[in-house]
Amino acid sequence: MAPADPGLVLLMALAEVEDGGAVRWLPRVVPLAAPLAAGDAGFERLRETMLSVTAHRLSVQLEGGAVDRAGVALARLVEALPPHRALLRLLALVRFIQGATDEAGGLLARVSGLAAGDGAAGEGAVPVAEAGLERALYALERRRRDHRMLGTVVIPAYRVEGCIGRALDSVDRAVRYYRQAADEPDASFHICVVDDASPDDTVKAVRAWSQAHPEHSLSLIASSRNGGAGRSRNLGAAMAMGPYLWFLDADDWFLDRHLWVTATALDRHPEIGFVRTGIRFDSIDRDITPVWRSASETTYPCNLGVRRVCHDLIGGFPDEEPFNPAGPEDVCYSRALQSLFVGAKTAEPTVYYTLSDGNVFDRLKADMLSGRPPGQGAPPEPVHLAAELLIRRRLYALEAKRGMQWDGPPILPDRNGRMIAL
């Protein structure tokens, strides 16, 4: 039979706390102690002494790595006894270590609400411990805030010191438009610039822009060798944060609504893997033939918003020799996406494709205005055949992905790509 004296009950309960046996006694303590708690100073001293001893024992367990065991005992004590600062603080530490951050924060708030004498007697280190936990909780929250990105804009850069700032400025405007349209002033996007071993001051220009815009999260990868746009985009995607990816060539730029239009489409349509928008084709926008406009808007990487998991599943952009420099790496990437995932398309132009001396647009300008479909009018070359063979090789390998179980959007049952209109 259990003793009726509350002091003995408390003593026996606390003596067994290391083995979890206190749960047998604790329900008896509170009702027995109730008539004494208001006026029996001796009992209060005994209670405080034993709880302090118990807190120390459990702290030793915690330091020894017995986190779960200490947590079980602490949870029982906290539930059965009146609030006690040391026990609450220890349970908060345990829950923090176990990853229950919200519960740890709630327990710490309870500790802060107690009077200084509740379980604090003789514990000069208590404020330090509580301050340490508070700082750790703040550090996690700050990290979550800093890394809570909607996605990453990847910009491959080669010899673009004169225009990279313009491209970055366009990302800045698109981010600000998104925040205003979404009514989310804290919405964050990461920018990853990948310098492809530029011989000019491209790196210096990016660093100068970043220093002038500290409000943006920007990383710079400086490659030691030139590997082409596909490899650079893959490097940037590997360093990405957030669920969505965008690509921007350094000599082009986003129109203000680009991030808003594409991110909103991906948010609203969980069944799609990617979304494409319209393009403004510099000075020939009114004259480009419909077939070339359609072909470009289907393959151009910069009018694309894509889920990062989909990018990873198809293996990113090809970077083999036939695709570099300025090969059909964008065609391969697009065909791979379309072979596995439903896409979405809006006719709204959200990117500006610049025409400048020597770039891909410049080399294709005559064909875009000729009326000939893409791929006709030019004699086949071995490099083109090699690229086509590599594309077919990749598409064949992706067939093994059909029917697989995964957490991304549904994988199509066949290669018959599907696009929904926005």
UniProtKB/TrEMBL annotation:
SUPFAM superfamilies xref list:
Nucleotide-diphospho-sugar transferases
* Annotated ranges, domain Glycosyltransferase 2-like: 152-291
Annotated GO molecular function terms are: transferase activity
Q: In which organism is this protein found? A: Azospirillum lipoferum
Q: Which Gene3D superfamilies match?
A: Spore Coat Polysaccharide Biosynthesis Protein SpsA, Chain A
Designated name of the protein: Glycosyltransferase family 2 protein
What domain of life? Bacteria
- Keyword flag RNA-binding: no
Keywords, in A-Z order: Transferase
